[in-house]
Amino acid sequence: MGSIKYDVPRLQQAKSMSCWNAAAMMIGYTYEVGPRQIALEAAYVSNTGITVDEVKKLAKFEGLKLLNSSDHEFTAASLIATLTRYGPIWAAGMWFGVAHAVVVIGCNDSGEGAVAFNDPGDGQEKSRSVSWFNEKRIRGTMLVRGYPPRTIGHWV
């Protein structure tokens, strides 16, 4: 059985539309100690969320890169390989019926495959199937540092 899971700090978003910021902070804290400056301060203060175009600005501010993943479906094996190469993934999707950002922290290939992610909505780790992940993700909005962090957790 193949799997990977990073030990990424879990944070709960401070405002109703600030999941994007909390997810970026989770990735930032995985690689370096804080404090962290708020990216896209106007969007944070106005609590409006961010657009797909603003995701690129967020990436630049946070030192993240756009993951070239919009034209394919992930399998458990390909998501494990992506996480192994690039580290945790900032990912926007219609995860629970509304646009929302999470941090993908792991994947395993048991059964149809399971994706582990930190949800800033409640600050908890969750897991769903790879097919659910493919169905719900917003194409062209996955961001990575481009290299794995030093700490890897264990799939539980």
UniProtKB/TrEMBL annotation:
InterPro entries: Peptidase_C70_AvrRpt2 (IPR022118). It holds the Pfam family Peptidase_C70. One of its GO terms (molecular function) is peptidase activity. It comes from the Bacteria. The keyword Hydrolase applies. One of its GO terms (biological process) is proteolysis. Keywords: Hydrolase, Protease. This is Papain-like cysteine protease AvrRpt2. It comes from Aliiruegeria lutimaris.
